[in-house]
Design a protein that fits this description.
A 5-stranded mixed beta sheet has the order 1-2-3-6-7. β8 and β9 form a beta hairpin. It is globular and about 60 Å long. α2 packs antiparallel against α3 and α4 crosses α5. The protein is an alpha/beta fold and 209 residues long. It starts with a helix and ends with a helix. It contains 7 helices and 9 strands. The chain is 51% helix and 14% strand.
């Protein structure tokens, strides 16, 4: 019944005299986006993973979905993808990006997302290294919980100063985290909706009100 209703909405909009064909198409695109994300959220909630991991995956889907809904509303031809979205250009378990924003075949943004227990832990995850090289040095943006952003920047600045002389690579990575961390993605006038750590975990466990 719910599926029939979703299909009927854009059809009803298309025959309503005060709605244009473009508006009907826009509604259809938004419903498709919401359906895709709802399916992903249900899949995340059904796993045996702990709530922190579920929250991280839910946050990825949330930021990509809300970015796309905003882009559709604003008639922007940019779209965000996680590695679980249909027709995603992002390979599964990509080592650098959790979300990419595309304009056609052109990648405009590659974002790394972390939702750790507190700002310090999230910052350290963003600046983590492997064999002395910053894991996410090629990321354009670090997306964190909306309630941790200032704390992440402050933690990063402390690590910049602490490691300048002894571990310059760590200091440089921390500086990038400090300067490139945000609570949402914004590209070409479209933006995702910020999400807190608590709300992400509620989404991931299916307990969001």
């Amino acid at each position: 019944m719910e599926d029939q209703t979703r299909k009927a909405v854009p059809a009803a909009v298309s025959v309503c005299p005060i709605w244009t064909g473009a508006a009907a198409e826009k509604v259809g695109q938004m419903i498709h986006q919401i359906d895709q994300s709802t399916t992903l959220m249900q899949r995340i909630a059904s796993t045996a993973q702990n709530k922190a991991i579920k929250g991280g995956f839910a946050a990825e889907a949330w930021h990509a979905e809300t970015f796309n809904l905003d882009a559709i509303l604003k008639d922007k031809d940019v779209r965000a993808f996680t590695d679980t979205f249909s027709n995603s250009p992002l390979p599964r378990n990509h080592t650098t990006h959790d979300i990419v924003v595309m304009k056609g075949d052109e990648q405009l943004l590659g974002a790394q997302l972390k939702y750790f227990k507190d700002a310090d832990a999230t910052q350290k995850a963003f600046r983590s290294s492997k064999d002395g090289i910053h894991r996410y040095q090629d990321s354009d943006l670090f997306v964190g919980p909306s309630d941790q952003i200032e704390g992440i920047r402050q933690s990063a600045q402390r690590d910049v100063l602490k490691n300048q002389q002894t571990r310059p690579a760590v200091s440089e990575a921390a500086a990038k985290v400090r300067d490139k961390t945000a609570g949402s993605m914004e590209v070409d006038g479209a933006a995702s909706t910020p999400l807190s750590k608590r709300d992400a975990e509620q989404l991931g466990t299916g307990s969001a009100e």
